[in-house]
Amino acid sequence: MKLTLPPSVKNWLSLAGVIIVLTSLFMIVFLFIVSSLLSEQAAYLGLVTYILLPAVMILGLLFIPIGMFLELRRVRRGGVHSPVGWPKIDLEKPRHRNAFFIFVAGTGFFVLFSAVGSYEAFRYTESTNFCGMLCHTVMEPEYTAHSHSSHAQVACAACHVGPGADWYVRSKLSGLYQAYATVADIYPRPIPTPIKNLRPARAVCEQCHWPQKFYGHKLQVSTHYLSDRDNTPWRIGLNLKVGPSQAALGLSEGIHWHSNPRTRIDYIATDPGRQQLSWVRYTNLDSGKVQVFRDKSLTVAVGSPPRGELRTMDCIDCHNRPSHLYRAPAQFISTAMTAGRIPVELPEIKKLAVQVSSRPYPSAVAAREGIRAGITQFYRLNYPDLLAHKQELVEKAVTGVQDGFAQNIFPEMKVSWQAYPDNIGHLYFKGCFRCHNDNLVSEKGATISQDCVLCHDIAIQGTPGKGMEVARTGESLVFRHPEDVGDAWQDTPCSDCHSGVSP
Ligand code: HEC
Ligand code: HEC
Ligand code: HEC
Ligand code: HEC
Ligand code: HEC
Ligand code: HEC
Q1: Parallel, antiparallel or unpaired: strands 456-463 and 466-470
Q2: pTM of the shown model
Q3: Pocket of ligand 3 (CB under 6 A)
Q4: How close is the Cα of 267 to the center of ligand 3, in Å?
């Protein structure tokens, strides 16, 4: 049997349709092969492969019957049929031969380049540069913080889009609105947190960190500086009980016990930022035992939870700043001093640097100038000799403070540590003490433990070289507060005095 096409197919529109269909089909197949060979995240590439190109292909398919219809109508109206005959190619003739080979080679190159070109274009939209730089002002804080985090090499899309078609479409839909908001300049400053349409944390984080991976303890040493003339250093080494003390115990105890598959913790927050928790329920999924801790001041009946969104605790409830941590002045100044970017030998530099970093500035440029003016004026007034002889130290301090500020505080977007609390720890924010406190009590009067050795052992503390205490392995020191505040550190949450600026 011979397959014949109706003569009406032979018209320019239908022919163009055929070319469009074949080209897009080729590109779909090509991109499909590329994205399955490269097993990396390719969410935006997927948009092209599965949405954009098929749309183009359908357009091409539509051209074919439309062209046929128009052609038939023309014929019926008495037009002469079939203006497009099949070209007769005679490869014996040198002119035909050359034209034929140029056509074939040209088409080959065109198809190859368009495939590679479209692939490159969409690799770019997938990249961190695209997310962070394209809408520069809006995303500058997130981009900057990200590039200084442990996740600097993890693409924005790995956490914010992730694999899976439904999340892909959801994030693209909200992305469309975000693009509109950016162009129309109606986006909120700062961008509200927590974000509503983030993929479930476990699906995101467990691509790379699976629960079985948490073993043992993690030693974390940091150096603080007091606000005195000498900037007295105070070192603290914590042995964080990230996992249990015996690796073979799995996640049965320690900090990641909350992520244990047999543990489920639900809570209700009274504020959108999830900082004030009024009701916490722990369910042991093995035994079915349920324990409810309620805010003492709640007036609703004991059996029923208060109004508000019920949320099941996951990674993000503690790790809410895995990639965008905006440090408080007290924190980033200490870090810069330890790293030698702010000279420790300058008198009163800790106190001064924190002060000039915590003033409100209208813009990043104003902040740079304000920091310079604040620091130089202080030394000119109080230590005129020093400014004369150690000008370069003061200059270094100015740069160190300016850089620290620029990495952590973004006046234009109103982004700072105050806008984005960090839930790990309890020094500047309530963090773990949102649940581990005296306020939430069970029916039997029990609270969620605040024992100082529940989450960490204190391995070292004190001023290096001046009677610094060191614990024996596996033991904890009794906490000593660097400044004499009596018993206040036991009765008052640390964050009541430590707000990120000098207490
Ligand atoms: C390691 C995972 C991860 C990576 C990588 C990542 N983010 Fe995030 N991002 C988060 C989490 C978690 C939140 C906060 C979620 C919450 O609290 O609800 C967040 C929040 C945000 C927010 C909302 C404002 C805020 O700070 O809470 C923006 C905007 C944002 N990210 C942009 C970006 C951009 C741009 C990049 C790439 C430069 C990026 N993110 C990379 C995990 C990530
Ligand atoms: C694409 C892989 C990837 C994803 C997704 C990812 N991470 Fe990571 N994470 C890493 C890498 C790589 C490191 C750095 C490891 C190192 O420095 O040893 C890291 C480090 C960390 C650390 C240790 C940080 C530190 O400073 O010691 C924490 C905590 C963490 N990730 C939490 C998260 C959370 C929470 C999420 C989900 C929102 C997440 N990660 C998603 C790859 C990833
Ligand atoms: C949403 C509430 C909530 C938050 C926030 C929270 N916890 Fe818990 N945590 C609990 C509950 C409930 C228990 C179980 C209490 C009990 O059994 O009496 C618990 C128990 C623990 C335990 C003991 C686990 C074991 O070995 O049995 C550790 C360690 C712990 N939490 C560490 C932390 C740390 C560190 C943070 C902050 C990064 C934190 N928690 C934040 C609710 C919370
Ligand atoms: C109860 C709060 C809490 C929850 C829930 C939680 N973490 Fe952690 N996690 C911590 C604390 C506290 C640390 C130690 C401090 C740090 O490394 O920042 C930590 C450390 C880590 C580290 C670094 C471990 C190391 O040895 O360097 C990774 C990775 C991590 N968490 C991933 C996750 C993932 C993934 C989830 C969700 C499955 C999760 N965490 C759930 C509190 C929590
Ligand atoms: C529910 C768990 C938990 C309890 C209870 C707890 N801590 Fe912590 N603590 C943490 C975590 C988590 C960090 C932060 C580690 C980090 O910075 O990544 C921390 C940090 C600290 C730091 C170091 C601060 C810094 O930035 O260097 C000190 C000091 C400290 N805790 C003392 C105490 C004392 C004293 C108590 C008892 C009153 C206590 N902690 C109770 C979880 C806890
Ligand atoms: C009653 C108020 C108060 C409480 C509560 C309190 N502190 Fe402090 N803390 C201070 C003062 C005041 C200083 C001295 C500040 C300085 O010299 O800059 C200080 C200094 C420190 C420093 C060294 C300097 C710095 O700013 O980093 C650390 C670390 C510290 N406190 C940890 C804690 C921890 C952990 C807790 C909770 C267990 C706590 N503090 C509770 C008032 C308090």
Answers
A1: antiparallel
A2: 0.85
A3: 241, 253-255, 257-258, 265, 267, 277, 280, 282, 313, 317-318, 424, 431-432, 434-436, 448, 454-455
A4: 12
